[in-house]
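Ticket #437: bound-state structure for UGB.
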Amino acid sequence: MSSFSSHSNPDAFPSTPGKVKMERSNIYFGRGSTRWQSSVAKLFFWTVVVVGLIVIFFMRSSSPVETRRLLSTPHWGGHDWEKRVRYSCRVKTEKGIVVLVTGAAGFVGSHVSLALKRRGDGVLGLDNFNDYYDQSLKRARQGLLDKQGVFVVEGDINDAPLLKKLFDVVPFTHVMHLAAQAGVRYAMQNPNSYVHSNIAGLVTIFEICKSANPQPAIVWASSSSVYGLNSKVPFSESDRTDQPASLYAATKKAGEEIAHTYNHIYGLSITGLRFFTVYGPWGRPDMAYFFFTKDILQGKSIDVYQGLNKVDVARDFTYIDDIAKGCVAALDTAKKSTGSGGKKKGPAQLRIYNLGNTSPVSVPDLVNILERLLKVKAKKNIISMPSNGDVPFTHANVSLAHTELGYQPTTDLQTGLKKFVKWYLSYYGVPGRISKG
Ligand SMILES: O=C(O)[C@H]1O[C@H](OP(=O)(O)OP(=O)(O)OC[C@H]2O[C@@H](n3ccc(=O)[nH]c3=O)[C@H](O)[C@@H]2O)[C@H](O)[C@@H](O)[C@H]1O
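RESOLUTION: The complex was predicted; output attached.
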């Protein structure tokens, strides 16, 4: 087939694009250009090889986060973006603080951001919107925050240039660090995500905060899981925490030790909060109360874990509003860091508090409450607790938080779950209707 005939008759074009290209090129260069074509092909080949090598070198010398950031369109920077950041951080009361909330599109982060904004503090959110669970729920929380004037910057806590930029734009007085890889059982599937967020990410946050001038005070989320196999109840802050049962717990415990180092060397004021199984509206779909609700409504069976000797497992389930109040109280009582300007001027505050409900409830009782609220009988599979990082029970002693933060949980599980179920049904719809879950 001549190039002329294929050009003049479109139906005769072969189906493979490469072939089309080749035949079309013959129209322009004719038979006598074979040597020329081979030089062009060689030049093209070597250009691709050289460019490829440069890209590989560049990717290997950068950290994964840097690489991702540099290869993708940055979500931050520019005049309008800075204006939004500053606007979100406006303080509306005389004693208002300016807080960077990491994990702001998360469960606890969204509630704390709203609580701070409501009372007139300056609040800026940061979240990487990862896909650990339903991202649309995170976007919906972001929508809520946006309506209340809280801008959530999209970015990772490991992105040091972004964090530095935020501190250049706004002199944050406080950082509420809630971004983390949560979930006890998922640590067996994706261990590195815990190291990435809960250790490397925490260190990046501390690094940026220690170099900021003025240094902010930091409040961050540790976990009840640090008590691990501790059997002394209720759990007090002074109890042993050297027997973590999951990698999640181990990374949170490591975080507490890392906090000690940054406090000791750089004078950062740091408060760690050990949250006890936080639940409530806008919660996390990976948690048992949440997916039990979904599965019960969908008529699916649920696994109810049972401990050794058929003892029920139990948790000190803590309602989100109580936790949010505890976080705000921790911010309000945080003293200033002492290392601003790179020279530590004296010992800085280093605190750790349990934030729990002080009344554990067994998982079968949790299911009973859900059954009553949902008016649906659960299909229960009672199984021995798999060895997946779970602990048999948790129980907080909160007297320290009560004395020093004025922390006083007020919501029992029945009341809190009622609020959760009401939200769940309004958000996902009553079963039978099209659901987002
Ligand atoms: O306080 C914390 O620091 C942690 O709290 C939360 O962990 P947990 O207390 O383990 O909550 P969650 O998974 O809801 O399981 C609740 C109960 O249901 C039992 N459980 C669980 C799953 C299942 O299929 N069946 C079951 O019986 C299970 O054995 C358990 O007894 C957070 O997820 C975690 O990120 C961290 O913040």
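RESOLUTION NOTES: Residues 279 and 319 are 5 Å apart (CA to CA).
TICKET STATUS: resolved
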